[in-house]
Design a protein that fits this description.
This protein is of the alpha+beta class and 322 residues long. It folds into 2 domains: 114 residues, Rieske [2Fe-2S] iron-sulphur domain (Rieske Iron-sulfur Protein); 170 residues, Naphthalene 1,2-dioxygenase Alpha Subunit, Chain A, domain 1 (Alpha-Beta Complex). It has 5 helices and 18 strands. The strands form 4 sheets. It has a 7-stranded antiparallel beta sheet with strand order 12-18-17-16-15-14-13, with helices on one face. The longest helix is centred in the last third of the chain and has 23 residues. Fe (ii) ion (FE2) binds next to helix 4.
């Protein structure tokens, strides 16, 4: 598609689906033998966990006569059996057997997606030209550690695109006017290949007065972000955003809080931080869902690193697309 036809299509002058790792489920939502019908990237998908515990993602429609494997498909060994005529498909989308045929047609193949399971997430690699992963998502030491609380997960369906919403991370001024912070944070932004690091320092209000807090945000590609909050109580947010279709995004934040000091996610300071972050999200959504995306915004000298952020994320689209 040319940029002009993309622009004519709608609200954003860039393609809807970037190249990168995207959460398709939380790991604990998929037990051994489970089959889940999913709809992401404007496509029908089937996610299943085989009998050995490995998660697989395939395009949903059986290559035979088109049954949706997510509705009635059953896990068998390392694969999934179609509910319609019982063709057996591997997690890589190869037909393993057809119970009533002597020969498997050579074209019997279903598109499979690369999957990684880490940090309590099942992630799938999306690339518009089907190229293999060009980077990996790091293992986060806090997740699953005894010193940190289990995830608390929040989820929103937002009528916008994550790369536009996530501009917030470098837009320090909005904290003051949208979220009512006392001052705008001091933010430093650094690009390191597919990683964007933001380091913000700001005054945070507590019942005992103001303390200096830190917000360290790392984006790993277009849809996986860690936010580490320090100052009051150490908190890690693992933020992921998966496009459902061109206009709608499944945004999810998973919070874990350091148990140091006796706080946990349900009590005291940990719960207060999670509540505050949820409130901020609701405040942001109103802006995101109604705003216009200006390809050439009118920036002023106090605006920080918005132009840098936009240059960074262009790498997640194949060249001619942006
Ligand atoms: S449609 Fe799947 S086996 Fe026939
Ligand atoms: Fe915000």
């Amino acid at each position: 598609m040319t940029p002009a036809s993309l622009a004519a299509k709608g609200r954003f002058p860039y393609p809807p689906y970037a190249n990168g790792w995207f959460r398709v489920a939380y790991a604990d939502e998929l037990a051994r033998g489970d089959v889940k019908a999913l709809h992401y990237f404007g496509r029908e998908l089937v996610l299943f966990r085989d009998e050995e515990g490995e998660a697989h993602l395939l395009d949903a429609f059986c290559a035979h006569l088109g049954a949706h494997l997510g509705h009635g498909g059953t896990v068998e060994g390392k694969g999934i059996r179609c509910p319609f005529h019982a063709w057996h498909w591997s997690g890589e989308g190869v037909c393993l057997d057809i119970p009533y045929a002597a020969r498997i047609p050579p074209k019997a193949k279903i598109r499979s997606w690369q999957v990684r399971e880490r940090n309590g997430l099942i992630l799938a690699w999306h690339h518009d030209r089907d190229e293999p992963p060009s980077f990996e998502i790091p293992v986060l030491p806090e997740v699953g550690s005894e010193d940190w609380t289990p995830y608390e997960v929040r989820r929103w369906t937002v009528h916008s695109r994550w790369l536009d919403m996530n501009e917030n991370a470098v837009d320090q001024i909005h904290f003051r006017y949208v979220h009512g912070t006392h001052t705008a944070p001091q933010t430093e932004v650094e690009v390191d290949g597919h990683i964007l690091r933001c380091r913000s320092r700001m005054k945070m209000g507590t019942p005992d007065g103001e303390v200096m807090g830190g917000i360290d945000t790392d984006d790993h590609g277009p849809a996986f972000q860690t936010v580490r909050l320090s100052g009051i109580i150490d908190t890690l947010m693992v933020n992921t955003a998966t496009p459902i279709d061109e206009d709608t995004t499944d945004v999810s934040f998973a919070y874990t809080v350091s148990k140091k000091g006796g706080a946990d996610a349900h009590h005291g300071a940990g719960a207060a931080i999670v509540r505050d972050l949820e409130k901020q999200m609701e405040q942001d959504i109103v802006i995101w869902e109604h705003k216009k995306y200006w390809d050439k915004p009118l920036l002023c000298d106090g605006d920080g690193k918005i132009a840098l952020y936009r240059r960074w994320w262009k790498q997640f689209f194949s060249e001619e697309a942006v």
